[in-house]
Amino acid sequence: MTDSLENQSQDNLENSLDQIQTLLAKMRQVEELVHRQGGMQEDLPDNREHTRLLAELQGRLDDLHPADIAYILEALPQNERRLVWNLVDAEQNGEILLQVSDSVRESLIQNMNKAELLAAAESLDTDEIADIAADLPRDVIEELLTTLDAQKRALLQSALAYPEDTVGALMDFEMVTIRADVTLEVALRYLRRLGELPDHLDKLFVVDHADEIIGVLPLKRLLTTDPEASVAAIMVEDFVKFRPEDEADEASQAFERYDLVMAPVVDASGRLIGRLTVNAVVDYIRESADADMLSMAGLQDEEDLFSSVWNAAKNRWMWLAVNLCTAFIASRVIGTFEGSIEKLAALAALMPIIAGIGGNSGNQTITLIIRGLALGHITTANARRLVTKEIGVALLNGLMWGSVVGVFAWLLYDYPALGGVMALAMLLNLLVAALAGIFIPMALERMNRDPAIGSSVLLTFITDSMGFFIFLGLATILLL
After folding, report:
1. pLDDT digits (tens, 9 = 90+) for 17-50
2. Burial profile 228-252: b = 16 or more Cβ within 10 angstroms, e = fewer
């Protein structure tokens, strides 16, 4: 049922995008028609068809959730994005800026004046302002701090003080606290008096007079227990809590392990200072996964799908340059065996097979290792066993697929010895690929570098260079 609802929601979102794009295409056609008739750009708002399409577009945007508008903005070229952004209800600007990707947020902020940015930021909660603060101009942040009351200003400054990828950067301050010495009936009356509860609230935090947390009261216990019972009698004293300095990765793993909806965040003395919710954790996991995917592809930063050619090219230069250097090295390996290739032309046709299969096998290993490191599953105690297992997998695959390619080369060129060299080279390069797939990300992790960044580039360099060297070297020794 959940998958069905998700698919339906995605279908509805894609239909909304199609409708918006259709309206924008019709508006372009009207504009082109007016220009062909000699009209000026400023005449367009007076064109009845253009005005009707503009009104219909705004009406459709008004019916959409801010998250859906964010999705649509990310799928539009920059000129159409600006048009749609200008039609969005200003009251939704803050929520939309929070939902869009960092790169798209930057493009939207560039087209907003100071008053618009202040209004958008003021519509957000303190922790949400902190999420977009890095993209806001410094003068906007400074003026925003002067407009907030003392409590919100202190909370914002506190949130901004924590580094990215820590619990402090993800926490919010919408908490409901209760004392241990009151009855459940008093707690229920307190909740009814509040009227509106924070999102993702599944428990109340029980604190003492110094605001130190001493337990949590799950809502299901509150609702199903005798109202005359005290909070102290039914609260949970063994609960998961975090410090603001804790790594967000570790917190996300704890949320998954213990099926948490929210958890308290405390300072060094145990005083309650915020909470971490599953919503913030899921957003962090998604953003981390996106960043890892981009890093493995050699992209330095998140890239707007419709960024300028210049900005997109700059984002891709560094690892392309690294690739170029590694390709030159691989070419020199081949150049060392030019005489062998001249004597046996079949080597030139077969050597890409060795390098390609090695690269694919290494990528399988490196993906598993990076995932294991991210989840904290790889430790000093199990690392040796992991290496042994991956070497075993490489040996098995090398023997099986090496035999296949060896027979293939034998039948294709009617040269049994060439088939044997092919099989042996395949086995050796798969072993090299397995070792590279294990030790590249582990070495980067040891150097406090993100294992996802550049691992695939280094792996390709090793499997290509070593694949060529092993195959051509064996052929030179055994065949020529």
Report:
1. 999 999 999 888 887 777 766 555 555 445 678 8
2. eeebbebbeeebebbebebebbebb
pTM of the complete model beyond 0.85: no
Tokens 């940015």, located at residue:
117
Beta carbons within 10 angstroms of residue 8's beta carbon: 10
* Rg (alpha carbons) of the chain, rounded to whole number: 30
* Spatial separation of the C-alpha atoms in residues 192 and 196, rounded to whole Å: 8
Tell me which residue of 323, 318, 285, 321 sits closest to 299, measured CA to CA. Answer: 318
Contact predicate 114/102, CB 8 Å: no
In 3D space, the residue among 15, 12, 20 whose CA is nearest the CA of residue 57 turns out to be 20
Residue type for 74, please? E
Domain that includes residue 443, residue range? 309-478
Dihedral of the alpha carbons of 21, 24, 30, 32, in degrees to the nearest 10: -90
- State the distance between the two ends of the chain, measured CA to CA, in whole angstroms: 65
The last residue of a domain, from among 142, 165, 188: 165
Which SS3 state, helix, strand or coil, does residue 172 take?
strand
State whether residue 436 is helix, strand or coil.
helix
Q: 480: how many CB neighbours lie within 10 A of its CB?
A: 11
Residues 69 and 119 in one domain: yes
C-alpha torsion sign, points 221, 227, 228, 232:
positive
Domain total of the chain: 3
Instruction: Name the domain boundary from 261, 277, 293.
Output: 277
Q: Which two structure tokens, joined as six digits, stand for 317?
A: 């230069």
Instruction: Provide the token pair at 304.
Output: 């707007």
In this structure, of 179-183, 272-276, 321-325, the range with the lowest mean pLDDT score is 321-325
Long-range interactions of 256-260: CB distance < 8 A, separation 24+: none
Tokens of 442: 């582990």
Q: Is residue 224 part of a domain?
A: yes
How buried is 161 (Cβ within 10 angstroms: 0-12 exposed, 13-18 middle, 19+ buried)?
A: exposed
Kindly give the interhelix angle for 48-62 and 78-87, rounded to the nearest 10 degrees.
70
